[in-house]
Here is the input.
Amino acid sequence: MSEKHEVVVLGGGVAGLSAGYVLTRAGIDLVVCEKDTVVGGLSRTIVHDGFRFDLGGHRFFTKDPKLEAFVKDLMGMEFIVAPRSSKIYFKGRYFDYPLKPFNALFGMGFVATVEILTDYVLERVKNGVRKPVIISLEDWVVNRFGRKMFELYFKEYSEKVWGLRCDRISEEWVAQRIKGLSLWVAIKEALHKSKDQKIATLAERFLYPELGIGRIPERLREEIDKVNAVLTDTRVTGVRHNGSRILAVETLGPEGEKVIEAEEFISSIPVTALVKMLQPEAPQEVLEAANSLRYRDTIIVAVMVDRDRVTDLTWIYVPERSIPFGRIHEPKNWSSKMAPPGKTILVTEYFCFEGDETWQSTDHDLAQSAVKHLEGLGFLKKEEVLDTLVVRVKKAYPLLEVGYQESYAKITDYLQGFRNLQIIGRTGMFKYHNMDHAIDTGIKAAENLLGKSHDILKINSSREYLEEVCRK
Ligand SMILES: Cc1cc2nc3c(=O)[nH]c(=O)nc-3n(C[C@H](O)[C@H](O)[C@H](O)COP(=O)(O)OP(=O)(O)OC[C@H]3O[C@@H](n4cnc5c(N)ncnc54)[C@H](O)[C@@H]3O)c2cc1C
Here is the structure.
């Protein structure tokens, strides 16, 4: 079977669907191919017996007024404003997240406070003498906060999330995530509350769809479906090309195998998979580069509880190695509609690699482990547990290992040789994009086909992009 459209979008997460939405509104004929039964990818909401949960609790936040307007216009009355109040559970106590200076400085006792301040001053003096070389996450944090602070608050959690030592994790990740933040800025923030909320991690409120984050991709799909088609259960299995243009994709869906030709292609599927699907094959060095890029995976273990509410927090970060999950959230604190009346749900995140010991554990063992540790932390009693659900999420995080840029550049240089292909999104670009960035890449890819000229690879990476967004 074969068919032809103006545009094919690969992947129905928020990036691919945003591209499809903008093009549909502009009257373009297209099709979106999504391998899963539902749209949304990482930004989907699981529904189970009246309980709802995201894959790790997704808050929508952007500094770009245009993006905010785009999403608000799409969601209309479905959006509510949720307060953000997160904590770090560490050595039996709660600390504010993001770290608040008084908590972080004085929370671990007098000796630790003196060490933090001494280390910080030492780091500043060192920086004054010689320009620091910042390659890894460890370099970046030590430079901004001092070594003691790094060891106390950053090391364990980062290693848990990434499964790598902090000197193997690229500084890019932390620099992007808590850009603008340092011990000194954090102290000033606490003493003199900033009015314009310029630092991303310090935002205290966020927009959230009443029925979970998955409503954003569902709404996008609803709009596309009015005119064009979003094909779910349809996996792209091959990408045909002639060396300078993509000609067609091969898909496997409910109706069997199909070839879909188009003039333009927008891909949000993992870039490493895309490269391996090309026919004829990509050059050996590009395939090797694709094999060297890794993603970090995650397992979500949701525990339904026979109680109205357990906490009043947005997220609880759990850095300690002895506890197997790294983060907990209680969706009911995001929207009361996320659980039936009188009941609640705790969602834990286990960071792992596909195929490792955690990944291979049975659902039963994972559920038992989550319940045991939640009970140990004092959040629930075993008898209150109504049900559990385990969801394995592949390719949740692009793993920004020190030196990954070389492989990445080989891949993007090669793909840029295809004049009618744009890569977008988080897994699609191998970039640590949040939803707003992913949506932005989709919108801009669509606009490129409508006569504009955006450099998508710069989104969420160049200093100019960040400055431009902050100025808007
Ligand atoms: C635990 C966790 C928490 C997060 N929290 C937040 C948050 O609070 N706020 C925030 O803004 N962002 C958050 N994010 C990031 C957010 O999830 C992503 O930025 C966003 O969902 C990326 O969308 P995407 O469309 O680029 O990618 P994806 O969601 O990965 O979409 C890609 C799609 O392609 C499909 N696909 C893959 N291969 C094929 C194939 N061969 N054929 C067809 N389809 C295919 C996939 O099924 C998927 O639907 C979080 C991410 C994680 C993992």
